[in-house]
C-alpha cells in the first residue's frame, strides 16, 4: 500500500516559492521554538519513550489538505522530524469564486452518483446525502497542481465522504469515503476450531461444512469498518479474494466455513483485534494502516507477506490458511516488522527473527481466547492437513533449540528466537513482554543478528521496566545461547 513518505525540510523548500522558513520565536498559541512558519499545532501525544507534536500545514491561514509536520522528542531530548508539507506557490490566490452552497451541491451530486452506481439494482433505495452543518470550508491543495478548494463533508449510504471542490471552477477534484467507525457483524473461528473445541480429531474434509465446525463458529462485532459495505476499515483492507470481495449493505458478514467469504471475515476480525491490542499497549505507529490482504488467491498450502507490495496473501491448500487465526497473526507479524524497520530481514538471522516473532505473535494473540489449550503449539488447525501426530503443530514456541542448532533455514532457526520470547512472556506476563518486544523492534537493523536484536530487547526492558526486567530478558536469551 502507498504510504506518505517523510520528506526533509530542504527537499520541500526546494520545490517552489513557499513560506517554509524556520521560526525561532514563540508566543502563546504559536508553534514552539524551532518549528517552521505556517504551522498550527493540532495534537500533542505522549508515547512510551517521548512526546510527539503534530502540526497542520497552513497557507495564508487556510489548511493545506494532507500537509503535516511532526516533531518527535524523546525523553533523552533527541529530536526527530517528519516533514509532510506540500509546496504551495507564494502568489497563489486563495479567494473563492464559487459559493459554498454551490460547492456543497456539486459534492453531494458526485457522492450520490457514486452511491447509486455501487448500490446495484435497488437504486431507488439510495438516500440523497446531506452535507453536515458547516461542512464546506476553504482549504488549499499543494503540490504541482496547487489550488484553493472547498472541503465538503457529506453523508450518504456510503458513510461520511470528503469532497474537494475547486473554488474557482466548481469541479469536484476528489471525493472519498473517510468514515472509519462503523460496526458490523460477522462469524469466525476464534482462534481456530481445534483450540476452541479442544479437539485434535477435527479434519478439513475438503472445506465441507460440518456440525462440529459450525459449533466452533463465534458471532462477533466487526469494529472500525469504513461504511463502504465491504470488509475495509481502519486497519484492514480486503483488496482481492477468491470469488470476489464480500459485500453487505447492512455490514452483516455471516457465512459458514465452506463459503470462501468466511476467510475474509476471519482476516478482518483478527487483524482488527490484534491492532486494537497493539494500540492498547500504547503504540500508535506499529503498522497503523489499513493492511492489504489477498484472501484464498494462492492455490498452494502457504501464505506469505510481500514487502514489495505490502500485501499479505493467504493460501487455500489443505485447510484454508485464513481459517486459522494463528496463520493470519503470523503473517501480520512480518508486516509489523517491515513497517517498523523498512527492509527488515536482510540477513539469515534477521529472517529467523522474523519467523520466530511471527510464531510468537500468533501464540501471544491466542492467549486471551485459548483457555490455555496447548498454547505453545502454532497453527493447530492448519497443521491438521500435513501432520499425523497429536497435537497438530506447524512449530512450537517451547522447543529446546539453542544457537548450537542453527542450520541456516529461517523457520528452523526462528524456533530459537520464539522460545526466548515465550520465556520472557512466561516470566514477565503477556502485556509487559509484548510491549518491550515491540518497542525493541524499533531499534533493529534490517540485517540484525540474534545477539544485536537481543541486546536491543534487553535495553527496551531496562528503559520500560528497570534492571530486574532487563535481567529476566537477558536470562531468557542466555538460555538460548544468544547472549
Keywords:
four-stranded antiparallel beta sheet, 18 strands, single chain, Nuclear Transport Factor 2, Chain: A, Elastase, domain 1, 483 residues
Indicate the proportion of strand residues.
15-25%
Q: What is the CATH top level name of the largest domain?
A: Alpha Beta
CATH architecture of the largest domain: Roll
Find the structural class using helix and strand composition: alpha+beta
Helix content: 25-40%
Largest β-sheet summary: 5 strands, antiparallel
- Topology pattern, helix = H, strand = E: HEEEEHEEEEEEHHEEEHEEEHHEEHHHH
The number of domains is: 3
The rough form would be described as globular
Q: Distance between the terminal alpha carbons, to the nearest Å?
A: 37 Å
Q: Which fold name fills CATH's third level, the topology of the largest domain?
A: Elastase, domain 1
Oligomer: single chain
Task: Note down, in words, how this protein is organized.
By secondary structure, the chain is an alpha+beta fold. The protein folds into three domains: 9-84, Nuclear Transport Factor 2, Chain: A; 100-177, Nuclear Transport Factor 2, Chain: A; 182-479, Elastase, domain 1, CATH 3.10.170.10. It contains eleven helices and 18 strands. It has helices spanning 9-13, 100-118, 193-196, 211-216, 261-280, 325-340, 348-366, 410-428, 430-441, 450-465, 467-479, and strands at residues 39-46, 50-59, 62-74, 79-84, 130-131, 137-141, 147-156, 159-166, 172-177, 182-188, 218-225, 236-241, 252-253, 291-298, 304-306, 311-315, 377-378, 395-396. The strands form five sheets. Strands 5, 6, 7, 8 and 9 form a five-stranded antiparallel beta sheet that branches. Strands 1-2-3-4 form a four-stranded antiparallel beta sheet, with no helix packed on it. Strands 12-14-16-15 form a four-stranded mixed beta sheet, with helices on one face.
Amino acid at each position: 500500500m502507498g504510504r506518505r513518505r517523510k520528506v526533509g525540510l530542504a527537499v520541500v523548500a526546494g520545490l517552489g516559492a513557499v513560506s517554509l522558513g524556520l521560526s525561532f520565536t514563540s508566543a502563546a498559541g504559536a508553534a514552539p521554538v524551532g518549528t517552521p512558519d505556517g504551522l498550527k499545532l493540532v495534537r500533542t501525544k505522549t508515547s512510551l519513550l517521548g512526546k510527539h507534536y503534530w502540526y497542520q500545514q497552513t497557507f495564508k491561514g487556510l489548511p493545506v489538505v494532507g500537509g503535516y509536520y511532526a516533531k518527535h522528542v524523546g525523553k533523552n531530548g533527541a529530536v526527530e522530524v517528519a516533514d509532510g508539507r506540500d509546496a504551495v506557490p507564494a502568489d497563489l490566490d486563495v479567494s473563492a469564486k464559487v459559493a459554498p452552497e454551490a460547492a456543497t451541491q456539486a459534492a453531494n451530486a458526485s457522492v450520490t452518483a457514486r452511491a447509486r452506481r455501487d448500490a446495484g439494482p435497488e437504486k431507488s433505495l439510495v438516500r440523497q446525502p446531506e452535507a453536515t452543518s458547516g461542512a464546506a470550508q476553504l482549504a488549499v491543495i499543494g503540490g504541482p497542481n496547487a489550488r484553493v478548494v472547498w472541503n465538503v463533508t457529506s453523508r450518504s449510504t456510503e458513510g461520511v465522504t470528503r469532497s474537494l471542490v475547486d473554488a474557482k471552477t466548481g469541479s469536484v477534484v476528489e471525493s472519498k469515503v473517510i468514515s472509519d467507525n462503523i460496526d458490523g457483524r460477522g462469524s469466525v473461528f476464534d482462534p481456530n476450531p481445534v483450540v476452541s473445541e479442544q479437539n485434535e480429531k477435527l479434519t478439513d474434509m475438503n472445506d465441507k461444512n460440518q456440525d462440529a465446525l459450525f459449533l466452533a463458529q463465534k458471532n462477533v462485532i466487526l469494529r472500525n469498518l469504513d461504511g463502504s459495505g465491504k470488509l475495509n476499515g481502519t486497519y484492514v483492507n480486503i483488496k482481492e479474494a477468491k470469488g470476489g470481495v464480500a459485500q453487505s449493505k447492512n455490514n452483516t458478514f455471516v457465512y459458514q466455513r465452506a463459503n470462501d467469504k468466511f476467510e475474509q471475515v476471519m482476516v478482518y476480525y483478527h487483524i482488527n483485534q490484534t491492532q486494537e491490542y497493539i494500540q492498547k499497549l500504547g503504540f500508535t505507529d506499529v503498522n497503523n494502516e489499513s493492511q492489504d490482504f489477498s484472501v484464498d488467491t494462492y492455490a498452494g498450502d502457504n501464505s506469505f507477506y510481500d514487502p514489495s507490495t505490502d500485501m499479505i496473501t493467504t493460501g487455500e491448500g489443505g485447510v484454508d490458511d485464513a481459517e486459522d487465526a494463528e496463520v493470519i497473526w503470523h503473517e501480520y507479524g512480518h508486516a509489523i516488522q517491515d513497517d517498523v524497520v523498512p527492509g527488515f530481514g536482510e540477513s539469515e538471522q534477521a529472517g529467523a527473527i522474523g519467523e520466530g516473532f511471527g510464531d510468537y505473535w500468533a501464540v501471544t494473540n491466542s492467549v486471551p481466547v485459548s483457555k490455555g489449550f496447548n498454547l505453545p503449539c502454532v497453527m493447530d488447525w492448519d497443521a491438521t492437513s500435513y501432520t499425523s501426530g497429536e497435537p497438530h503443530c506447524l512449530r512450537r514456541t517451547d522447543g529446546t533449540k539453542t544457537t548450537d542448532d542453527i542450520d541456516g533455514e529461517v523457520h528452523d532457526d526462528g524456533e530459537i528466537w520464539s522460545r526466548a520470547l515465550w520465556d520472557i512472556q512466561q516470566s514477565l506476563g503477556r502485556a509487559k513482554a509484548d510491549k518491550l518486544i515491540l518497542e525493541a523492534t524499533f531499534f533493529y537493523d534490517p540485517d540484525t543478528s540474534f545477539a544485536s536484536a537481543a541486546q536491543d530487547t534487553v535495553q527496551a526492558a531496562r528503559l520500560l521496566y528497570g534492571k530486574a526486567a532487563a535481567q529476566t530478558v537477558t536470562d531468557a536469551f542466555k538460555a538460548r545461547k544468544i547472549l
